[in-house]
Each structure stands twice: as C-alpha cells, then as structure tokens.
Specification:
With about 300 residues, the chain is an alpha+beta fold. It has helices at about 105-110, 130-145, 150-170, 185-205, 210-215, 220-230, 235-255, 260-265, 270-280, 285-290, and strands at about 10, 20-25, 35-40, 40-55, 60-65, 70, 75-80, 85-95, 125. Strands 1, 2, 3, 4, 5, 6, 7, 8 and 9 form a 9-stranded mixed sheet that branches. A hairpin with a 2-residue loop joins strand 4 and strand 5 (about 60-65).
Length: about 300
C-alpha cells in the first residue's frame, strides 16, 4: 500500500539515466490496493491472474487475466479489490525521455504528445480478446520475463519493445486525432481531482464535510458529488472512508497505540463505526488484523 504522502509519485521509476522499471504486485497478499494517485511516467498494467477494479481518469473497469490497462502520464488512477477476489499483475513504467530526449523532435511532437493525456485515448482498457491486445501481449510478456536482467545487457531490446508497443497502440486506432477532443475540460477535471486527492491526504484525520471538499474544487455540493463519482466511480464519502481505513490499517501494523486512538487519529469520531467499517472492508476486526502476520498482508 502506498505511503499517505506519495499520492503524486515524484520519485523517478527506474534509474535516472534509464527511466524504466517493471514492478510485480499481488492483491491482497502484498498490498491491499492503490488509492487514487498519479505519476509522470506512462504505465502499462498487465494482469496475470485473478481480477481487480482499475480506474483511470474516471474510466472504470474490472480487469482479468491477460487484460491490460494503459495509464497516460499524469492520469489519476487507482486499483482496488474486486470483491473478495485476489489479483496478480505487473506494472511497466517508463518516461518518454528514455525513447527520445529531445521534446521537440519529430517523434515527440507527432506521436509521444498523444500518449501523455487520456483525452486522446478511445480505449484505456485492452481486453485479452481484442486484436490489438493479442499483438501487444507477446511484447509485454517479453519485458516482464526479462525484468530481472541487467539493463546493461538488455537496454536496446527494452527500447525496441517499447517502440513496438507504442507503434501498435497508435496504429490500432485507439488514439484520437487532437483536432476534435475536449482537451481543456479534461485537463480541468484532472486538476480538480488532483486537488481534492491532495486535500484529502493532508486533512483526512480532521473533520471534512462535503461543503469543504466541494469548495476545494470550486463546485457546489451537488455538482461536486456528481463530479467525483463520474471521475472515480465512487462517492467522495466512500473514498474518504476507504482512505482513512487504509491509513488506520497501516498504523495497526506499525504502531502499538490502542485501537481507539488509531481510529481518532484517522478521522473516525465514532469508534463503533470504525470497527464495523474496518471489518466490512478487511474481513476482520482491527485487533484481529493487528494480530495477523503482517507479511501475509503486504
């Protein structure tokens, strides 16, 4: 589970001189999920087992084995459990500077600029049965299979595979022409979501009302509630409570404080409600969660 301070991941993924990395994750064994966050790298998620619910800039899908999720640079996205099901997946993250250092080059202007905003994508979720997905899968699997190989032995192949993948995505007609897309509105929506996510991170332990959250986005309460659900697939109250519960779960494993104190520290004024909500989300009470082996949940 990501640290409460890392919703905008500013640290580089991979090496500074080779901004590329492949991560391996299992839900809920290694992490419970990823709340709304964003980073500057382009990301390809490949599900290898089970299923999970992925949200990218308001688009939501349950992805299963061999499905892929495309996450453009700066897109606000999250990963959560699909009911009580488990999920295993790999994340491939890279910066476009790896492929082209000059942002004004022909490729950067003609192609890469389209990959850095969800507004240009007709599809972000590639089901395993799609023709495009079947073409990309072998390339993604090759990158995953060689993830532990020394970059000094595999750098050119990595870049070659990434170029092939981007070519297939662009050639697969899922990237729109820029002439007829509502770019400004999309950017405004994205910035509003980032503002409320950052605000929640900073103030989740305090009392937050819908009115206070709406004011952060310069929206009325009713418009804010509709807007947040449209963009994330959940209500703001659900997001806030989930954020608080996940923070509380972290503290239960890292701190020796009483459950009551942890509940209050994470914005729950009603202890009974905290225990009920915690058991509904994690399947066990806070004390049972604490007494379990933390390595089984990370």
């Amino acid at each position: 589970m990501p640290n409460r301070e890392s919703l905008h991941e500013t640290n580089s993924h991979g090496k500074k001189t080779f901004p590329y990395v492949v991560y391996h994750a299992r839900i809920p064994e290694w992490l419970l999920g990823f709340p709304l966050h964003w980073h500057d790298e382009f990301e390809i998620i490949f599900v290898t087992g089970g299923s999970a619910v992925f949200t990218v800039d308001g688009r939501r899908m349950c992805a299963m084995k061999n499905d892929m999720v495309l996450v453009p640079s700066g897109a606000v996205h999250s990963i959560e459990r699909d009911g009580d099901r488990c999920c295993e997946y790999f994340n491939i993250l890279f910066s476009f500077s790896l492929l082209e250092e000059n942002p004004d080059s022909h490729c950067a202007r003609k192609y890469f600029s389209f990959f850095q905003d969800t507004v240009f994508f007709r599809e972000l979720f590639l089901k395993s049965t799609m023709t495009l997905s079947k073409k990309i899968q072998p390339l993604v699997k090759d990158l995953i299979d060689h993830r532990k190989q020394n970059y000094s032995d595999y750098e050119l192949m990595i870049k070659g595979r990434l170029f092939e993948i981007l070519h297939l995505i662009f050639d697969g007609n899922i990237v729109k022409d820029s002439s007829n897309v509502p770019g400004r509105q999309n950017k405004n929506n994205s910035e509003r979501i980032k503002k409320i996510v950052s605000y929640t991170r900073e103030h989740f332990s305090e009392r937050i009302t819908i009115g206070m959250a709406a004011s952060v986005c310069s929206l009325s309460e009713s418009r804010f509630m509709n807007f947040f659900r449209e963009q994330t697939g959940m209500s703001y109250i659900q997001y806030l409570n989930d954020f608080r519960l996940e923070s509380g779960a972290e503290e239960l494993l890292s701190e020796k404080k009483p459950v009551t104190e942890i509940a209050l520290d994470n914005g729950f004024e009603n202890i009974s409600y905290f225990i009920r909500a915690f058991k509904k989300k994690f399947g066990v009470t806070p004390l049972e969660y604490r007494s379990s082996n933390p390595h089984d949940r990370r």
